[in-house]
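Backbone-to-sequence.
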């Protein structure tokens, strides 16, 4: 499925397509990026193991979380695991490039993935983060849901590898993504 453009208007359909594919393929784990918890809440009662990956603390403002503690508690009450940690495709390298200029290998990887859309980059990133945190099983296909800015517009079947072996990560199928981004 290709959406005409990127954005939150695709969120509901992205989640529907991801769940439909998970059921058809027998995929039991879904990793979803969520800054506010709203996208993740659409997976309530889906019957799948859901991991919600938030923006890192300090993403939009030093020392501040974008997602509220109330939203985190609500997601946990739904049986979801919520993970906040350093973004695997930026992290310390972004700090180095901001301080000294230039570009570094992990940033090049992130920009290369963005050639397929921001949501594909996010899907890879959150999958690896969830695997490194021990929240999804190693060696299994999962569905990852990401987006461009707010909401979700991309879902992929992916078999993530750890950050230390990130090039072993395999994007198996793009379920949906924006055509224009």
């Amino acid at each position: 499925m290709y959406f005409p453009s990127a954005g939150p208007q695709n969120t509901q359909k992205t989640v529907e397509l991801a769940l439909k594919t998970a059921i058809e393929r027998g995929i039991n784990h879904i990793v979803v990026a969520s800054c506010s918890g709203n996208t993740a809440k659409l997976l309530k009662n889906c019957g799948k193991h859901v991991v919600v990956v938030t923006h890192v603390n300090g993403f939009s403002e030093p020392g501040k979380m974008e997602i509220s503690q109330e939203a985190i508690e609500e997601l946990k009450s739904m049986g979801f695991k919520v993970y906040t940690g350093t973004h695997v495709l930026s992290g310390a390298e972004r700090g180095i490039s901001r301080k000294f200029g230039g570009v570094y290998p992990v940033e090049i990887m992130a920009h290369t993935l963005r050639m397929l859309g921001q949501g594909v980059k996010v899907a890879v990133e959150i999958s690896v983060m969830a695997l490194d945190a021990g929240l999804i099983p190693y060696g299994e296909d999962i569905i990852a849901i990401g987006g461009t800015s707010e909401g979700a517009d991309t879902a992929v079947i992916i078999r993530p590898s750890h950050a230390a072996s990130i090039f072993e990560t395999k994007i198996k199928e793009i379920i949906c993504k924006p055509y224009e981004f």
